Amino acid sequence: MKLKSLVLAMVAGAALMAQGAGAATVNRTAPVVTTDDGLGGFNAHFGDTFAQSTTGSTFTDVFTFDVGTPFDAAASLTSSYLNTPQTKDLLITGLSLYRYDPVTKAMLGTAIAGIDLTGSGADAPDSWALSGFGLTSGSYAIQVNGEVRGVGGGVFGADLTISPVPEPQAWGMLLAGLGVLTTLAWRRRQPARVRADVRRR
Q1: Among candidate residues 30, 23, 48, the one with its CA nearest the CA of residue 141
Q2: Among 61, 77, 31, CA closest to 148
Q3: How far is CA 190 from CA 95, 179, 194, in A?
Q4: pLDDT in tens, 53-82
Q5: Beta carbons of 99 and 140 less than 8 angstroms apart
Q6: Over 125-136, what HEC string results?
Q7: Which residues have CB under 8 Å from 143's CB, separation 6+?
Q8: How confident is the prediction for the chain on average, in pLDDT?
Q9: pTM above 0.90?
Q10: How far is 29 from 11, CA to CA, in rounded Å?
Q11: How far apart are CA 3 and CA 33, in angstroms?
Q12: Which residues have C-beta within 8 Å of that of residue 147, sequence separation ≥ 6?
């Protein structure tokens, strides 16, 4: 009788452990593969897939990248999933951009939070967007948070666009150049006015 109770307790414990393992947090970090846009910036596409084995889990995916000049950033994300009856299988709960320390893997400063643009209706696919302007050069990361709620799992895909921002010295040179061009144009018009005034007399 004791052996039978012991075996039942072990089976129940194993079932609880398996259930607890399914409710774990899935953390993944990967560098973003970038494509040069030919204008000094770059584009990147990234995402993740979740199988039935991750049902009941929360996840945090971190996609890292480096930028060598000041920049503006824009990212968007959409999800696709199987819709198990009464359950949205994949739910995105957050999208953010932040400075990132590649050595300690720590978030630095305040994150730029994404905006949830998910449409209305039952179990609409997730849609998120974020923008950051005038960011300094350095290491950055895009973080995606979510939950795998149903046995269908799901997938999300995202894109990132980085555009360089002219540095203050470049703006100064641009304004100085416009000033020189304006002065030259003004001076060229001056002699023509003097000649026109002389002819009228």
Answers
A1: 30
A2: 61
A3: 58, 17, 6
A4: 888 899 999 999 999 989 999 999 999 877
A5: yes
A6: CCEEEEEEEEEC
A7: 60, 61, 62, 63, 94, 95, 96, 97, 98, 107, 111
A8: 81
A9: no
A10: 35
A11: 56
A12: 57, 58, 59, 90, 91, 93
pLDDT over 70 percentage in the chain: 78
Question: What does the angle CA 104 – CA 109 – CA 115 come to, to the nearest 5 degrees?
Answer: 110
Which token pair is 60?
């945090």
Longest dimension (CA), the chain: 128
The secondary structure of residue 150, as a DSSP letter, is S
- Rounded CA-CA distance 72/97 in Å is 12
Lowest mean pLDDT among 56-70, 89-103, 160-174: 160-174
